[in-house]
């Protein structure tokens, strides 16, 4: 008799079978819409208002997400220090994973989410590769303790930082790792990295690569195609914003993409080879629900 697969094994089997999985949408902008102060790290609500974080996760599950991300984008001690939480890395990340796991149940996967440190590595900055790797190892230990099924390193600009994050994660776990970069309208990250370059550098050591945040969602197809050419066997992950942000009334940031327009983008991303599709800044459960419907309709046609 065969032993039952773990959630992680089942996740990888779905991807290897060619299935397309729908991730969730934004966390930070959604929590801000329910009262999180601008400038306050979303991770603070894991301890102060965990019910709001759990509710958001649940809304994405109900919208049709196959996969949700833990509320831990800024979970390194570098970013948590902005709200006096630098000494709470283990607790914050474990709690982020636990809340997502509670909302996900057994049928939806949980990715431990990790964003950039917000610091520059030497020689442009003062951080060493070892310091960055150690910070991510500390974060990953909390996420693994909380029960994540895989890891996502996202919104990366610097290859060195992304590689250090992977190095740190591998000190703690052998869970699947994915890494997405943020490209601007010129097709480069803030540090000048192009999609093909990111793919060639990262794909050999992780399960998947992709793009998130950054530029116009309509440009993501081109990013994915370049990555596919550079790393034909890599699983592709696409996580666009709900359109480009614009500021109104001096400080209010809004995103113009409707659920219907992002649903159309989701189908295009699937056609471009993405196997995991979700939303970044500005996306809501309504966007994810529309994307779920569009992807199901395409699969059935």
Count of the separate structural domains = 1
Q: Which H/E pattern describes the elements?
A: HEHHHEHHEHEHEHEHEEEHEH
Number of helices: 12
Terminal-residue CA separation: 37 Å
CATH topology title: TIM Barrel
User: Oligomeric status of the shown chains?
Assistant: single chain
Describe this structure in words.
The protein has 301 residues and is α/β, with parallel strands linked by helices. The chain has a single domain, classed as Homocysteine-binding-like domain (TIM Barrel). It is built from twelve helices and ten strands. The strands form two sheets. The chain has an eight-stranded parallel beta sheet. Strands 8-9 form a two-stranded antiparallel sheet. Strand 6, helix 10 and strand 7 form a beta-alpha-beta unit. The termini are far apart.
What are the defining features of this structure?
alpha/beta, TIM Barrel, 8-stranded parallel beta sheet, globular
Brief description of this entry?
The model has no long low-confidence stretch (mean pLDDT 94). This protein has helices spanning 7-16, 28-33, 45-48, 50-63, 77-80, 89-104, 129-146, 159-170, 195-202, 220-230, 259-271, 285-300, and strands spanning 21-22, 67-69, 109-114, 150-156, 177-181, 208-212, 235-239, 245-248, 252-255, 274-277. The longest helix is centred in the middle third of the chain and has 18 residues, at 129-146.
